[in-house]
Amino acid sequence: MFSLSIPLGKFVRRVSRLRGGGSALPGLVVEKIDPGFMQRTLSTLPHGVAVVSGTNGKTTTTKMVVELLESQGLKVFTNRTGSNFTRGVAAALIGDVDWRGRLDADVAVLELDEAHAVHFVNRVPPRYSLLLNVLRDQLDRFGEIDKTAQLLQHIASKTTGTVVLNREDPRVARIAGTLQGPEVLYFGLDDSLLGTFPSDDELRAGPGSPVPAVPQRPQADVVLRRVGADDADFEYDGVTVTTGMKLRGVYNIFNAAAALALARSICGSGAATADHGTLLKALSEVAPAFGRGESLTVDGLPLDLVLVKNPSGFRLGLKSFPSGGYATMIAINDNYADGRDMSWLWDVDFDSLRAAGVDQVTGSRAYDMALRLQYDEVQIGAVDTDIPAALADFIRKGKGKPKRVFCTYTAMLAIRRELSKITTVEVVS
Amino acid sequence: MTPESTGGTTASKGTIRVLQLYPREMNIYGDWGNALVLQQRLKWHGYTPELLEYNVGDEFPEGVDIILGGGGQDSGQLVIQDDLQSRASLLKGMAEDGTPMLLICGLYQLFGRFFKTRSGPVIPGISVLDVETHGTDERLIGNVKVTTAEFGEVLGYENHSGQTTLGPGVEPLGTVAKGTGNNSSDGQEGARYRNIVASYLHGSLLPKNPAIADFLIRTAVERKYGTFTPGEADDRFAVLAREHAARRPR
Question: Which of A102, A111, A351, B17 sits most deeply, having the most CB atoms within 10 A of its CB?
């Protein structure tokens, strides 16, 4: 069938790129004039659609799954720009289909925002879904985390083949009990690592409050056994393997277990023979996605950007990136994409920054952050709500020291923009 | 140890015991911030804070001077409801006796007469406060600014679907200048009764509203030791954070 929607969509895409505009507009145009486009195109893929959702780590995990599958010789369609709404998927499709609307791919791996995934799976039931976590994030959008869990449950219920669940997140693991159709697989953590990922329910009782006993957990398909400085041990098929890791941060490496479980499942369903050697080599080479734990170079020394958007993420960031020897900046914005509610800052412990202090605090909520640090008795060098000015000051005063910036999403975008004036910042199209 | 090394510490003016109610289930909106602020400000004022917690099934500690109650999901309220009922007369006695309390969101609701959820079931409260709460489909979310006679402008963030109406037995904490507050009709926020401050505002509430923190501390100290002499508190960042928060859009 030939339809005008595809050439028109491609035209809008070209024009909006020339104008440097948003990535979702062509998707919106095509969806308006040809509502069946996305469903029709994706249903042609021989190995179907895999949806990756959850509060935290979608972008990097999706990137890992794609690279793992590509290492097995599969052609993968994905929404690479991180536009994780339905129209973002349509926009990405418009870029990849030929003029007759054909998509040359074996499988689609799509990162979807929790709320938008619900609309997507109603239209395109996925063959696979990977549900990462339900964290206390974006409560200003969803109201309660139980509501977020319900959104993920809906994705799982629409999945026709295999659902991959986080065994260690009680709200995610509990979804298994609600499913009848799909096969359920888990990814999990070694007992010794559980303490690194306190669940949101144990987030903040008083100091010294007892840690609840670990309950009986189901068998996991892939288990993260150990995290080293630049390698990690995973166990699957009864064997423990060690692989180098470019990704840093324990949460990224836990999500590598998730990506392995999904990729192995897709390959195991006949898409390809999952070859251990090439899978692990691909995993060891995955670099962080745009703005997620990127390391840039400023004045010949590394500057790490650590994205923080909820208490669990911030605590894991502080744990993964110790402050000794580094100059530290914290940039907190409260724009819509960051979440408008600042209460979560009080659920993070900043004790680990006490020894070295924080050199600079910035962002629209810089004073809330400074107030938070004050109550944890952390010394502060300077506070300035203006991000460009604060960044310049931070770089000037921190000369000769590697740097680390903990930042919310829109603060990260602003910092990247400023840094691109003085260093090479990788641009994702 | 030389005498100089201990010379810098002044003797404590006394111990104040702060109890967090159900921190495991009712702590969703940074309620730890309220506990931390009381702990540090007690130190700044020269007192020794003792932070305690009470969870479902625990023994209720003796000699509690200040009670903190936080917010929780609807599911959390269901988990604690029986235990809370079993402590109703104790808590009511403490409230009537003048124990200072800060009750945020979920425990504000459950310290009232009842919370009638939208799906039907009624969670009974412990009737410390003459208020009642009805679940709605509308979720009230955003930055809030409240004008109060007692504490000046109170700043915070709200996120609730239960709407609370006050009976004649309580006063509102204040009038809403930005945001919604107790319910979408009367423009009032929170409740004041004896030494209880109840509110839908989190943020956390106390860090940006040190006047309320110091009210709880002063009241507790006066009840226990007769008089309160404040110490030095550095509220520079609190003032700036307040100014900034007041300008943030809803």
Answer: A111
